[in-house]
């Protein structure tokens, strides 16, 4: 996994809600194939950061550069909406905390996974359906559920379906916002295991936001710790969690261990 | 109803309004399939009864024109009669029921069987101009989807049909792609009529009065009915010929003849049926 | 030859004759005189003028008679006529502060400059049937005239101490669009929204306004002021260089005062919802001002989840000429589309039976579930 350019190069990024900064002064590099966890308490600005990086929220200051599949370096804040949508269709994915935000709940599972393919020009029903079926199998959804809509699925199945819908177009970068937090512990573990193996198989770069340090430890290479809209500590995940430097991170880690 | 029409302008609308409509029409012709918003006026019939088509016709009709009005393919359905009488009264237009003699044809739900020719204009009455409306109710969002040519959603609908029924289950208002760019609703014509839109020598104009949108297909434009490579668009077909004129390959209406399940199939296009029946008579 | 579809022209002529006969009622009684309707059914006339968006009591009365009392049909008649009228120009904004009210009430202050004036209202009638001839004096009672000191609007009184948002548009006072001349696209400006609401169906706005009071987008309204009266309409004639009065119109204005908590940038302030209608149309003006205020949720940074706060939903469905036309168009023939659907349903049924037979041929499986 060698690459001489980061996939995402973020410098001094910030997003402001009215008079208040949701996050500010964020610097980070994300490399191809790397999994970066963003951890912090609720209100720490981690979801705002994710929204800003993924262009769902506007960039108030700073720069975000993305190295596209074609080789060019894109300054995300300067892209037109159509160009951002093109990235969503072909190179990016977003896994929401609530599957209802990322799925069409009354469209069949096959239609949900097939939609990104149809949006990128697939016009052969048989191929679309076969590809959707492969992906359902890959995320461990029984084949006979392909024509059922996600409203009939359990929470864990919905989340796995959302992941399939995101990965079917072979993205290079996937954003995940607390993908496991609404699930039972055993279901969480199974989903994380699945995500970890898919990420490794596909060489995906992932930015995952979580309040759960165990999630960060299980699947991320590096971790950013956020507090009050700023990054207070960052480094290799094992280092940050085993040997936290800052007092806030120490508090966060010890509270988990005690809990 | 009122025969005293003093005080009304030719073709009812004032000249400023006609200019506004013509500007919208020109824009629509320049961007085939794109829905142009326009300041739709009230016209003396209820919204949803062809007010868009009436405004478009009023904006283009001149003294040299011959108007044909059909509803469900027939010249003699009440709403078609009413609109034809309206233009005869306010535009002093000459009218006809012959497709080949008309220069302007206003229609609701059908395209005539007689192929249209260069120089003819067909004006469609459109109730819901937005092909994505039942998939996405918000205008702000559907406008964005058109701007970005983001039509995955439409194919999801077709996919779901095939998954559920084994084939596409849309029989009218069958969505089309115009000139490879804009997804468009052909108005509630049966899918049977869709192929007539493709590369038609006639100018095709669409007016949606209540929804305040005008769109157009210039002559000789590609109009593709959506489908999949392995489940292509299939227009409807009928097994039997017209019970009156014997025509085949035309759209038929089912007419109930008794209360024991008896029915017969006859041409929906009354002009076509009359002439086909007349010719059958002659050859006999 | 099968001719069921023939005869449309004769059917229409017969229908018109029958309609005229039904509308005439008992020929022994004298027909309704539109002038009497304008005078005696003033509230109905006001509604037709407001929703028809044309101030002409005589014509509205004629429309009501011709429509046989069908309000929406009368509104459609007025609108269809209005659209053919040439447009000479735009009047200057009417000044409702100068309006000498025949009615003026405020629910926010017990007394205020100019005083409260009950005026002509149904509010305190006992809703008992009375004999019209003895119901009351035909001439106006004494002391009903407007006071000389003027009646500043309640919003101006609050505005003087900056407790309510100011009247002016915020950014450079742009010319308001004209919904009847330019295509409106969402999101609309408030000026365009108000135009739409002014023409909107009274019943629809009433229901929406009511829904905001019951918690679907609550915005804590107070009836700051309701006033009814006649006001001068003036037009600027370029050749003259000064405004010339061209007539007077009777208006009902409602200013609803609503809470607003304020934000980091703005101190707490009252906000307003506005309603204006022709003639005596109090219910309409009040409903309109409730809905106007609830549609400002986005602008004021409020959570917008209720139907009355959804601009596309409210504006797209408030026009009763459009609504009734589209609902009633369902009685037009749909033979062609229905035939298409009939063919499809038959095919789907046949396919279903084939599958069911095929399945039961193999085993008793419920394969298709």
How would you describe what is shown here?
- The complex is a heterotrimer of chains A (259), B (284) and C (369).
- Helices cover 40% and strands 25% of the residues of chain A.
- With 259 residues, chain A is α/β, with parallel strands linked by helices.
- Chain A has a 6-stranded mixed sheet with strand order 6-7-8-3-9-10, sandwiched between helices.
- In chain A, a hairpin with a 2-residue loop joins strand 1 and strand 2.
- The longest helix of chain A has 18 residues, at 185-202.
- The radius of gyration of chain A is 18 Å and the shape is globular.
- Chain B has 284 residues and is an alpha/beta fold.
- Helix content of chain B is 27%, strand content 18%.
- In chain B, a hairpin with a 3-residue loop joins strand 6 and strand 7 (182-184).
- Chain B is globular and about 55 Å long.
- Chain B is built from 6 helices and 12 strands.
- In chain B, strands 1-9-8-5-4-2-3 form a 7-stranded mixed sheet. A 3-stranded antiparallel sheet of chain B has the order 7-6-10, with no helix packed on it. A two-stranded antiparallel ribbon of chain B has the order 11-12.
- In chain B, helix 1 packs across helix 2.
- Chain C has 369 residues and is of the alpha+beta class.
- Chain C is 38% helix and 12% strand.
- Chain C is built from 12 helices and 4 strands; from the N terminus they run H-H-H-H-H-E-H-H-H-E-E-E-H-H-H-H.
- In chain C, strand 2 and strand 3 (243-258) form a beta hairpin.
- Chain C starts with 7 loop residues before the first helix and ends in a 7-residue tail after the last helix.
- Residues 1-5 and 365-369 of chain C have low confidence and may be disordered.
- At the A-C interface, loops of A face loops of C.
